[in-house]
């Protein structure tokens, strides 16, 4: 395997592409549009990572979070300035799920839910912490 590419199913793909451009500085690589105008498939790039996006196809049981009521997957964006991108996403229409905060594992992070039901964690590394120290800090959370 050479790489894994996230694939998001979204009820309104065209609207989502524009949102991701504003919220996360996405670049649209291409889109495939059906004759009636529905975006069947598109690819965007965010921070060097490709993300595939497609419309819903109920006849194949392919549905997005808006239709099924939730999602079980999130996308983690590791960036130079997490606070800036977090607030940019909120300004574009995302909803804050977890506010920006320094984390025990060495990141500053927060998470948002986009208008289409997908979750995004946005983080910046503020301290390099080895796995043993992360485990120690994690267990310390349970002491209090």
Automatic annotation (TrEMBL):
Coiled coil regions, renumbered to chain: none
PANTHER family: BNAUNNG04460D PROTEIN-RELATED (PTHR34109), VOC DOMAIN-CONTAINING PROTEIN (PTHR34109:SF1)
Name recorded for this polypeptide: VOC domain-containing protein
Pfam families tied to this protein: Glyoxalase (PF00903)
Organism in which the protein naturally occurs: Paenibacillus pseudetheri
PROSITE patterns assigned: VOC (PS51819)
TM regions (residue ranges): none
InterPro entries the record matches: Glyas_Bleomycin-R_OHBP_Dase, Glyas_Fos-R_dOase_dom, VOC_core
Residues of the VOC domain: 1-125
UniProt lineage: Bacteria, Bacillati, Bacillota, Bacilli, Bacillales
């Amino acid at each position: 395997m050479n790489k894994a590419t996230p694939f998001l199913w979204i009820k309104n793909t065209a609207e989502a592409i524009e949102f991701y451009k504003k919220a996360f500085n996405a670049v649209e690589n291409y889109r495939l549009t059906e004759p009636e105008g529905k975006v069947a498939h598109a690819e965007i790039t965010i921070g060097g990572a490709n993300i595939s996006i497609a419309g819903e196809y109920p006849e194949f049981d392919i549905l997005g979070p808006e239709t099924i009521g939730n999602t079980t997957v999130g996308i983690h964006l590791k960036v130079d300035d997490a606070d800036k991108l977090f607030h940019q996403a909120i300004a574009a229409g995302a909803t804050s799920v977890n506010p920006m905060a320094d984390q025990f594992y060495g990141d500053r992070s927060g998470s948002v839910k986009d208008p289409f039901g997908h979750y995004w964690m946005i983080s910046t590394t503020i301290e390099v912490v080895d796995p043993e120290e992360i485990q120690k800090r994690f267990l310390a959370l349970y002491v209090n």
